[in-house]
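hey can u check if this looks right to u? its 64 residues, i copy pasted from the old doc so theres a chance i mangled smth
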Amino acid sequence: MAGDPDAWEYETLEPPRGETKKEATDPADELNDLGAEGWELVGTVDYVGGGTKLLVFKRPADQS
């Protein structure tokens, strides 16, 4: 599907969590690394009751 303008690939990042299950560490370095590789944050998957479980990224499939 490389070259198809409608083809996407996806990546996820699990935010670092402390013992209290709250986001404990700023993932800025990981976010900057993904951004440098062409990934764009497009959404989150959240826990029921609050908190972010996964950050979801996408980029064109031919940009690997």
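The CA atoms of residues 17 and 45 lie 15 Å apart.
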